[in-house]
Specification:
Structural class of chain E: alpha/beta
GO molecular function, one term (chain B): L-isoleucine transmembrane transporter activity
Helix content of chain E: 40-55%
Chains: A alpha/beta (about 230), B alpha/beta (about 260), C mainly alpha (about 290), D mainly alpha (about 325), E alpha/beta (about 375)
Oligomer: heteropentamer
Order of helices and strands of chain E: HEHEHEHHEEHEHEHEHEHEHHHEEEE
Strand content of chain D: under 5%
Shape of chain D: globular
Largest sheet of chain D: none
Helix content of chain D: over 70%
InterPro entries (chain B): AAA+_ATPase, ABC_AA/LPS_Transport, ABC_transporter-like_ATP-bd, BCA_ABC_TP_C, P-loop_NTPase
Number of strands of chain D: 0
Distance between the termini of chain E: 38 Å
Bound molecules: adenosine-5'-triphosphate, magnesium ion
Keywords (chain B): ATP-binding, Nucleotide-binding, Transport
Pfam family, one (chain B): BCA_ABC_TP_C
Protein name (chain B): ABC transporter ATP-binding protein
Order of helices and strands of chain D: HHHHHHHHHHHHH
Distance between the termini of chain D: 39 Å
Chain lengths: ~230, ~260, ~290, ~325, ~375
């Protein structure tokens, strides 16, 4: 469904991504793990067009989307829940969700999507008129996910959705991800919490300083001594 | 007598009671944890301890003297330093300048000395530089001294924030989610570091963290906050098995 | 009492002009966080376009107004594309300096083009005067400006808060990248913001040109500054705030001139401004949101 | 790094004295005619203004756009001393500068709780209040301004005081006090948490900045014979702001370069009337588009820069070699 | 210095400087004055020049700023080596540079700086050797209008409404008041505006409440036009009076002819005058620039006339001799009258009092000094 082919990304003079290639098959959860600053966020941002790679290509459903504007890519059914949630803090929850469906012109469809999101996250319905900025970290994370779901993406990129959340919420978030996937959304998940990520994923990639150093079946990676040592705390 | 004692501390924002009747007591050399669900009021408690928010009621005593009503910098001068949940480095400055700024209140020369470049200025600057380098060595950042803070990887930025807090020469160190965004390996190294500085500098440390491996690994005493109230205090083992904590925070099959 | 009422009317009519300019100011400001110092000069260009249409081409009021609004919308979009867009990632002050540059460019470019002398509008709106309670006078032009100001305020408020483009604008103002991830075209949204803001400035220019009957290339400096003050007074980016700020400033000026000493009007107006800001550091309607630590 | 480098300091001093001497000689002998003198004087005054505003805007990160107001206070303060009290020039300058510093304190204290653009408006307002007051005080000439001020400033005075200003502000900035000032710009909350008394340093930046603006005002008054309130309006404040931003906020050498450049530019376009401002405007836009951080950014100009640059290049080549 | 003189005497052309407001808030005045002066210099050059040399008129922009004015003057003197400087149009900008000129011994002829201090040092009361002007001064104009309002309009009370940023306006107001009060009148109110103002109704409402017999409005036409218009809207029907700053065809356009009924101002000349000199000038000016000259343009022209006459009479065209010749100016025919300079370097000329009727200036009386 998604194919990244040998991308190189620079921030000014900094060579952040030094040739990353990966594939996300339809209907799967693929996870990208790696240390801080390895280039995970950069990879996701490149996929959805927020950053242009210097060389290399990104294909979504066999079409080249390299250099296509983000809003066009989103239109084709690919959305990201960005690192740090980036909700619209000074708007109420319902407006955040409406913006998630910005490209959907059909009012009825939008209303239905909103129903679904509220059903999945009842907390959001309770607080739908509250300003998003005043929500707790976990609630903000739910909102960010709900907002992304409003556009009914076929491929969802998630960037560290568990960051800063309490253990109980981390579990909840992961079960939501799994559920989403079971309902047909393909997912590319970036996580620090490698153990959790690998345990729900089908496939995993390990990124180090801008390169893929390991790739394979998630279960295998979970058992691999290198991964264990570097990312699972021995 | 406890070094830091917090008595019935409360604060509300509008109608919301973010922290109510919080009681804490830390002895010299304690290493304690403060955990709780998102939005429980942990960071808010830190903000009151460091003078960022003025408590609605209650008292904070350091060595028996109240800190309530003091400005953040005055509280820092009394010996309380902190890090932030969202990293707040002086990001366009070099690593070493970040530390030198924190040394400011211990500078050995005045305004005139600086402007007229009196001899005291040079010795004072040298002392600050040397002390900063020493700290950087401890935090394994000495090879990045001239790097801009914003160019450091995330994990190193977190370490730099702790180093910077140390440079103010505190007696009490408050760490707000020091391991956030770190992988298990980095978290492990951080644990070692925290233990080591507590020992080496005789510090009293209170830390907020959601990573249970860190909290359970280093803290001797843990406070659990939920909806602004302490729901449990105890050793890691007590906490791990406390049903209220499991229900509110850890979830089933606590790790 | 009569004098007081007359002064109130004077203040409101002066204030409605500040408010009219401040609306566009605050809107651009709220969405792109740029003090668009050139806004006052777009207002001036708008006035000249209205003059050109009525005096030279002999058009009537409404077509002249619409033409001026349209051309200034294009001008605003062009300015944004050329001078501000490349600086979106740069420190805000850099865009502020280019805004000063654009402002000077429009002022003196216009001066080169049409000369420094004043121009006067032909009588495109016949003037009607009403007398209230004997000696209090109100003119139809004052009423028109007031009505237009309030109508535009309501319209803007509706656009920004109720329509999808308005929501997109607010999203862009908060976080451009996140907005893009929603499928919002940031460039188009910002262009729309400038187009609306600039056409508002043009409307103000034409109306004021007709009301005072004299325009010159530097006419935008002072009202621009006062409108900026009004926008800040009301709370940056808050549309009803800009209008209130404008009225307040106008009324304060009228009252100081009328009951105090006209000599001290500007200093007193600024002193009041500063006192208000010290009491309400984010303006009258602004919430003083403390950065969450 | 921390020993007093007497040799280097002496060298710089020697260079400065030599520069002063050469210019003084050329002025005395008429090689440089008074037009050049006048522009040298303007350059000096503008450097003092730009560097002092840079302390507030660039180093301390407070957005002040009322600098001309403080300059006016200094100009009038100093002129009154020489005109009405017939006291010596040095005292007049000091009085004007101190008076401006006091105004800085008066402005700084109440407005410090304002941030960003709200502070900008407040400082702009103060500038206009000061000007509005001057216009209405007949004792100091009202709208006419003061004329007949003795021409006491000359190249030597201006040069010495410009150098003094730059040294004082540079020494301030490159000390623990300067770092405290800068930390407020970088992150006020963190600065406060690290024990910096942010109020004190914000007020200090304001007071020092306005003190030197006042000094510039005093020099201005005593070189141009007359001062008028209109000279110190908000457009003048903008001019100074433009120098600071163009040179680079947080770069003293940047401010100096911009002050020199813009003064010369303005002088050389005098014959072009309205066109001159169009050119000036276009130049501003173009420079900002190409160097949004200003000519120098926050860096200081030094010969070392060139050395470092060439080193960087080597490094880059090295890096790419590895990449292959 | 000596170099300058030498050069002037030898060169093929005579260089005259212009220090005018070409940008900034009074750019209109500077531009009009330069247009007027250029017109005359071109005529002279076309007729063979003066002292057998062509005139080169170098004008620089002082941005309507006193400091810039000093800067410009220095440049004119030291770079362009001018033998005399015309300008500036306002007293403030002229005061800004006269010391520079005096220090360099270059004569200055201001076209329209009407403040007395320009030619006489207020502190020492000494006449400034090198400074001259082509217009009458504020005391004269103020006095003329005070006399007119008391004698012709039978006014007993007056309100003065000045441009707070213009020394010119304040000067006129001061002398109007002195003369008005000396003759037994009462000033019932003093108000002020700034030139950037658009709306004057608040102050006008206040003035209306004071109920004066006349309102003295010594400002420039752009604001005056708006003030009179807004005053009439508010129902103020007493006469408005003013000075030469009113003189522009724009006045009637801005205020509207009806509002101007019953307003009077003193002026150097009237473009409506049937004096042949005026008619010829207006025609020439219209031909070249396509618009009716205002008094700034006329005074710019006259300044050029005076300086050329002085150069002619100086014999050698050196600044020193030009200065002497200027001081001795006698009966030179210019647009605004036959001009002679008095001991204070002010032209001795009368003022025309004009009434606005149907938007036209109608010549009312001529007052001699
Ligand atoms: N805007 C930027 N400008 C310059 N360098 C950047 C920028 N963003 C990221 N980098 C650098 O690019 C590299 C990759 O960063 P990236 O954010 O993609 O890492 P990551 O794997 O997502 O890390 P984390 O786990 O901390 O989120 C890092 O070295 C980082 O410092
Ligand atoms: N300045 C403020 N104004 C209003 N509400 C606030 C403010 N600061 C904090 N709160 C609220 O107080 C509550 C506690 O917030 P706090 O940041 O202390 O939580 P926390 O325990 O640190 O959570 P997390 O683990 O997610 O960081 C939250 O509901 C938050 O929204
Ligand atoms: Mg990341
Ligand atoms: Mg927290």
């Amino acid at each position: 469904m998604l194919k990244v082919d040998d991308i190189h990304v620079y921030y000014g003079a900094i060579h952040a991504i030094k040739g990353i290639s990966l594939e996300v098959p339809q209907g799967k959860i693929v996870t990208l793990i790696g240390a801080n600053g390895a280039g995970k966020t950069t990879t996701l941002n490149t996929i959805c067009g927020l950053i242009k790679p210097k060389t290399g290509k990104v294909y979504f459903e066999d079409k080249d989307i390299t250099g296509v504007a983000t809003q066009e890519i989103v239109k084709r059914g690919l959305t990201q829940v960005p690192e740090g949630r980036r909700i619209f803090a000074n708007m109420p929850i319902y407006e955040n969700l409406e913006l998630g469906a910005y490209l959907k012109k059909d009012k009825k469809e939008v209303a239905e999507s909103m129903e679904r999101v509220y059903k999945r996250f009842p907390r959001l319905l309770e607080r739908k008129n509250q300003l998003a900025g005043s929500l707790s970290g976990g609630e903000q994370q739910m909102l960010a996910m709900g907002r992304a779901l409003m556009s009914k993406p076929r491929l969802l990129l998630l960037d560290e959705p568990s960051m800063g959340l309490s253990p109980i919420l981390v579990k909840e978030i992961f079960s939501i991800i799994k559920e989403l996937n079971e309902q047909g959304t393909t997912i590319l998940l970036v996580e620090q919490n490698a153990k959790m990520a690998l345990s729900i994923a089908h496939k995993g990639y390990v990124v180090e300083t801008g390169r893929i150093v390991l790739a394979g079946d998630a279960k295998e990676l979970l058992e691999s001594p290198e991964v264990k040592k570097a990312y699972l705390g021995g | 007598m406890a070094l830091l004692s917090v008595n019935n501390l409360s604060i509300s924002f509008g109608g919301l009671k973010a922290v109510s009747d919080l009681n804490l007591s830390l002895e010299q050399g304690d290493l304690a944890g403060l955990i709780g669900p998102n939005g429980a009021g942990k960071t808010t408690a830190f903000n009151m301890l460091t003078g960022v928010y003025l408590p609605t009621s209650g008292d904070i005593l350091l060595d028996g003297k109240s800190l309530v009503g003091l400005k953040p910098y005055q509280i820092n001068h009394r010996g309380v330093a902190r890090t932030f949940q969202n990293i707040r480095l002086f990001s366009d400055l070099t690593v070493i300048d970040n530390l030198k700024i924190a040394y400011h209140s211990h500078a050995k020369y005045g305004l005139l000395g600086a402007i007229a470049r009196l001899p005291g200025f040079y010795s004072g600057e040298k002392e600050m530089h040397d002390k900063s380098m020493e700290l950087l060595k401890i935090f394994k950042l000495d090879n990045k001294a001239e790097e801009l803070a914003k160019n450091l990887p995330y994990g190193e930025q977190r370490r730099l924030e702790i180093a910077r807090a140390m440079a103010t020469q505190p007696r009490v160190l408050l760490l707000d989610e020091p391991a956030a965004g770190m992988n298990p390996q980095e978290t492990h190294d951080l644990m070692e570091l925290i233990r080591w500085i507590r020992h080496e500098f005789g510090l009293t440390i209170l830390l907020i963290e959601h990573d249970m491996s860190l909290v359970m690994g280093v803290c001797e005493k843990i406070y659990v906050l939920d909806y602004g109230q302490i729901i449990a205090v105890g050793t890691p083992d007590d906490i791990r098995n406390n049903p209220r904590v499991i229900e509110a925070y850890l979830g089933e099959e606590a790790s | 009492m009569e004098v007081f009422l007359q002064q109130l009317i004077n203040g409101v009519s002066l204030g409605s002009i500040y408010a009219l300019i401040a609306l566009g100011y605050t809107m651009v400001y709220g969405i792109v966080q740029l003090i668009n110092f050139a806004h006052g000069d777009v207002y001036m260009v708008g006035a000249y376009l209205g003059f050109f249409a009525t005096a030279i081409l002999g058009w009537s009021f409404l077509p002249a107004l619409l033409m001026s609004m349209f051309v200034c919308a294009c001008l605003g979009v062009t300015i944004e594309k050329l001078a501000y867009k490349p600086l979106r990632m740069a420190p805000r002050i850099a865009a502020l300096i280019t805004a000063i540059g654009v402002s000077l460019f429009l002022e003196y470019g216009m001066m080169l083009l049409v000369g420094p002398q004043v121009r006067t509008f032909p009588q495109v709106l016949t003037e009607v005067q009403w007398k209230l309670f004997g000696s209090i006078t109100v003119t139809n032009r004052q009423v028109i400006i007031l009505v237009v100001t309030i109508a535009l305020m309501l319209l803007l408020q509706y656009i920004v808060h109720k329509t999808m483009i308005g929501k997109a604008m607010r999203a862009v103002s908060h976080d451009k990248q996140a907005a893009q991830l929603m499928g919002i075209n940031v460039n188009n949204t910002i262009s729309a913001t400038f187009a609306i803001g600039s056409s508002l400035a043009a409307a103000a220019g034409v109306l004021v040109g007709i009301y005072y009957n004299a325009i010159n290339p530097l006419m935008g400096i002072m009202p621009g500054l006062k409108a900026f003050v009004a926008a800040v007074l009301g709370g940056i980016g808050i549309i009803p705030g800009a209008m209130t700020g404008g009225f307040l400033l106008g009324i304060v000026e009228a009252m100081v001139s009328g009951y105090g000493k006209s000599l001290y009007r500007d200093p007193v107006a600024f002193i009041i401004l500063i006192i208000i800001l010290i009491v309400k550091p984010a303006g009258l309607f602004g919430k003083n949101i403390r950065e969450k630590v | 790094m921390f020993e007093r480098k007497l040799g280097k300091q002496f060298g710089i001093l020697l260079l400065l004295v030599a520069f002063w001497g050469v210019v003084e000689f050329m002025l005395k002998t008429g090689i440089l005619n008074p037009f050049y003198e006048l522009n040298l004087i303007l350059i000096g005054i503008n450097i003092i203004l730009a560097v002092s505003l840079n302390l507030i805007n660039g180093f301390n990160g407070q957005f002040s756009i009322g600098h001309a107001g403080f300059m006016a206070v200094g100009a009038y303060g100093a002129a009154i001393i020489t005109l009405k009290a017939q006291l010596p020039f040095a005292m007049a300058l000091l009085f004007g500068a101190v008076l401006a510093g006091i105004f800085g304190l008066l402005v700084g204290l109440p407005t410090l709780r304002l941030r960003g653009d709200y502070l900008a408006i407040a400082t702009l307002g103060f500038g206009e209040i000061i000007r509005g007051m001057i216009v209405n005080i007949d004792y100091i000439g009202g709208a006419y301004g003061l004329s007949g001020i003795p021409k006491l400033a000359n190249w030597t005075w201006i040069f010495a005081l410009t150098v003094l200003t730059v040294i004082v502000i540079a020494n301030f900035v490159n000390s623990t006090h300067g770092r405290a000032t800068i930390s407020i710009r970088e992150n006020e909350i963190a600065a406060e948490a690290m024990g910096i008394n942010t109020t004190k340093y914000k007020v200090m930046a304001f007071v020092i900045g306005s003190f030197f603006a006042g000094l510039a005002g005093g020099l201005h008054a005593h070189y141009f014979y007359t001062i008028q309130p209109n000279t110190f309006n908000f457009l003048k404040s903008f001019d100074i702001l433009v120098m600071v931003v163009l040179g680079g906020q947080g770069s003293i050498t940047g401010s100096i370069i911009a002050a020199v450049g813009l003064t010369i530019l303005s002088a050389s376009l005098q014959s072009l009337a309205a066109l001159r401002l169009v050119i000036y405007a276009l130049l501003l836009i173009v420079i900002m588009l190409f160097r949004p951080q200003g000519l120098m950014g926050t860096k200081e100009f030094s010969l070392k820069m060139f050395r470092k640059k060439s080193k960087d290049k080597e490094g880059k080549q090295h890096g790419s070699a590895v990449g292959q | 210095g000596g170099g300058g003189e030498q050069k002037a005497a030898d060169a093929k052309e005579i260089v005259i400087g212009g220090n005018f407001e070409m940008s900034g808030n009074v750019a209109t005045f500077g531009t009009a004055a330069v247009n007027g002066a250029k017109l005359y210099f071109e005529e002279v050059n076309a007729a063979g020049g003066v002292l057998d040399k062509q005139i080169k008129f170098v004008t620089l922009d002082n941005k309507s700023d006193a400091t810039e004015s000093a800067n410009v003057a220095t440049r004119l003197i030291t770079q362009d080596k001018v033998v005399a400087i015309l300008g500036a149009t306002t007293s403030g900008n002229t005061l800004g540079y006269i010391q520079v000129a005096a220090d360099n011994k270059i004569p200055v002829l201001s076209s329209s700086a009407t403040n007395p201090d320009v030619t006489v040092d207020p502190n020492t009361k000494a006449v400034r050797d090198y400074i001259f002007r082509a217009c009458f001064i504020d005391p004269f104009q103020g006095t003329v209008m005070a006399n007119f309002s008391m004698q012709d309009l039978q006014a007993k009370t007056a309100v003065i409404y000045v441009d707070n940023q213009s020394p010119y306006s304040k000067g006129l107001a001061q002398f109007f008041e002195e003369s008005f009060v000396k003759q037994g009148g009462t000033i019932v109110g003093r108000e002020a505006y700034v030139p950037e103002d658009q709306d004057f109704k608040a102050t006008l409402t206040k003035i209306k409440g004071m109920n004066p017999d006349v309102i003295y409005l010594p400002g420039y036409y752009e604001q005056v036009g708006k003030i009179v218009k807004q005053g009439r809207e508010l129902g103020i029907d007493v006469p408005f009076l003013g000075g030469d700053g009113w003189d522009s065809p724009k006045l009637a356009e801005i205020a509207g002819p009806a509002a101007l009924a019953g307003t009077f101002f003193s002026n150097h000349y009237s473009s409506e005058q049937d004096d042949p000199n005026v008619v010829a000038f207006v025609e020439k000016y219209k031909g070249k620039y396509g618009e009716t000259p205002d008094s700034m343009a006329a005074l710019g022209y006259d300044a050029a006339v005076l300086i050329v006459e002085a150069i002619k009479n100086s014999g050698d065209g050196t600044p020193e001799k030009i200065k002497e010749a200027l001081a001795a100016t006698k009966d030179v025919q210019a647009v605004t009258g036959k001009l002679s300079l008095d001991a204070n370097h002010n032209p001795i000329k009368g003022a025309a009092i004009l009434e606005m009727v149907d938007g036209k200036q109608v010549y009312k009386t001529y007052v001699n000094p």
